[in-house]
TrEMBL record:
Residues 83-426 form the Solute-binding protein family domain. Keywords: Signal, Transport. Residues 1-27 form the signal peptide. This is Peptide/nickel transport system substrate-binding protein. GO terms for molecular function: peptide transmembrane transporter activity. GO terms for biological process: peptide transport. It comes from Naumannella halotolerans.
Length: 518
């Protein structure tokens, strides 16, 4: 009836929103050493960005590492991307339209305030999530929630929610359970305190919000074998060089990295963890000619794709850390199409021929909004140079992140340079290319894509994968985007930690799974 090992549809390092190469990590200046058996001590981690809130319902997915020590999730993702039991032992859809989902809650679990976990506690969390501001609440909210018995929760939606299981993992925040007693009290306190069923609890006395977060181990945690440290500290360090230096000096055990410091981290003997999960390229937004740009012509959009030297960009800018991209999803994602790996080979002459056929033999000028973040800024210049070779003059409007977001989503630019974290196809439909997606501000719509997605949302997993592939094939054929490269998210770990591994399916090791080397 239930499945507890369904393949994770994607990982995220990414959120349901556009990201420009998310970085995260951790740190502390007051480490303690582990005991002789390798347990105890402090895990010091360094994050680039502080969370706006510690309440999972109000937390952006990109800052979920701050919730991981205190909040166990209903479902976990293992290193291969499989879904495995967490606070729930069984789960699955009980209908054939992905509208009715049931979970069986683990016995013997208590929250840090002593309250027991049961089905009613899960219902209280789902109701709390409905009022949350997290960027992932839409994956599961808006349903009817019912405790069938002490251990069983039933969720019923009016429309299909095929990603329910994925949403309830530690990656997507929605499955992190909060004590119902805390929710029934002053829930605003959860902004700066924790009340979870995880192995640690926030030490408010040692914590400085926005700067340093200290979590101490619980004596009554339900799974003590997976409680590897006495304390976890997370220090916010915005500068990548500062984080690397903290690793070198032993101040930090685990930290976020970036492309600019990866070689130095390798030379310093660090574990350098990277998985290509962010798709960089051009979003050709004016597909229907709303702004009366040449992009309304399919031949023009295809010409832009032929004009981009993906392999050259990957080799020159990313080296061993990246690869060429033709699709908006990575290869581990259900929906990725192997046959499209070379859909638009680099062919400037072909690009010029298509432009001439479309009536632009003399080229045209294309306004493009771009971010000033380092990777995006570099790629923007490369795109401009390569398009200039086929007669397209790119007018770059480069902006810092907040202004870029406004420009990209405001419906005034025919094209944008994007860095989008690969997500399950339904998430990308909601956020990237569906008719109501925020990053489809001109409302491009394709009947074939829409009808195929409608079928896929209600289909069994195997059938849905085939339908997702049809959607991705349609996007590539119609050249809605000009993807260029898959870029990684980096993390560094000291040799004092047991070997870590990452993959496209899980690009970051959850903090609670990190262990001392001995």
């Amino acid at each position: 009836m239930f499945s507890n090992s369904r393949r994770l549809l994607a990982a995220g390092a990414a959120t349901a929103s556009l990201i420009l190469l998310v970085s995260a990590g951790c740190a502390s200046s007051q480490k303690s050493e582990p005991g002789a058996d390798g347990s105890g001590g402090t895990l010091a981690v360094a994050l680039e960005k502080a969370p706006g809130s510690l309440d999972p319902a109000d937390m952006e997915q990109s800052t979920s590492a701050f919730a991981q020590p205190a909040y166990d999730a209903l479902i976990k993702i293992d290193g291969e991307g499989n879904l495995v039991p967490g606070l729930a032992t069984e789960w699955g859809f009980t209908d054939d339209e992905n509208k009715v989902f049931e979970l069986t809650v683990r016995d013997g679990v208590t929250f840090s305030d002593g309250t027991a976990l049961d089905a009613e506690a899960v219902v209280a969390n789902l109701e709390h999530l409905d009022d949350g501001r997290s960027n992932v609440v839409s994956l599961v909210n808006g349903g009817d929630y019912e405790a069938i018995d002490d251990d069983t929760v039933r969720i019923s939606w009016d429309s299909p929610h095929p990603l329910a299981a994925q949403a309830f993992t530690q990656t997507w925040v929605a499955g992190m359970m909060i004590s119902p007693e805390a929710l029934a009290g002053d829930a605003e306190q959860l902004t700066t305190s924790t009340a979870g069923a995880g192995p640690y609890v926030l030490d408010a006395a040692q914590t400085v919000a926005g700067s340093r977060y200290v979590y101490t181990a619980r004596d009554d945690y339900w799974d003590p074998a997976n409680q590897h440290f006495d304390q976890i500290t997370i220090t916010v360090m915005e500068n990548a060089e500062q984080r690397l230096n903290a690793l070198r000096t032993g101040e930090v055990d685990y930290a976020a990295g970036d492309l600019g410091t990866a070689a130095a981290a390798t030379d310093a003997g660090m574990q350098v963890l990277h998985a290509p999960t962010v798709v960089y390229g051009l979003s050709l937004l004016d597909r229907e000619g709303t702004l009366d740009s040449p992009l309304q012509d399919l031949a023009v959009r295809q010409a832009i794709n032929y004009a981009i030297d993906r392999q050259g960009i990957s080799d020159a800018l990313l080296g061993e850390y990246g690869s060429p991209a033709q699709q908006t999803v990575v290869s581990s994602e259900p929906g990725y199409v192997d046959a499209l790996a070379d859909a638009y080979p680099y062919d400037p002459e072909k690009a010029r021929e298509l432009l001439a056929e479309a009536g632009y033999a003399d080229g045209f000028t294309l306004p493009v909004v771009a971010s000033t973040s380092s990777t995006a800024a570099t790629l923007s210049q490369v795109f401009a140079e390569q398009l200039a070779e086929v007669g397209i003059t790119v007018e770059l409007d480069s902006r810092p992140s907040a202004d870029y977001f406004e420009g990209m989503t405001g419906g005034t630019f025919p094209a944008a340079v994007i860095g989008y974290g690969s997500q399950p196809v339904p998430m990308e439909y909601d956020g990237l290319f569906g008719p109501e997606a925020i990053f489809n501000p001109l409302g491009s719509s394709d009947d074939e894509i829409n009808s195929t997605m409608e079928k896929a949302m209600a289909a069994p997993e195997e059938e849905a994968t085939v339908l997702y592939q049809q959607v991705i094939s349609r996007l590539v054929d119609q050249a809605w985007f000009a993807p260029a490269v898959y870029a990684p998210v980096f993390y560094y770990a000291s040799e004092d930690l047991a070997p870590l591994s990452v993959s496209e399916a899980r690009p970051q090791t959850p903090l609670n799974e990190i262990r001392p080397a001995n």
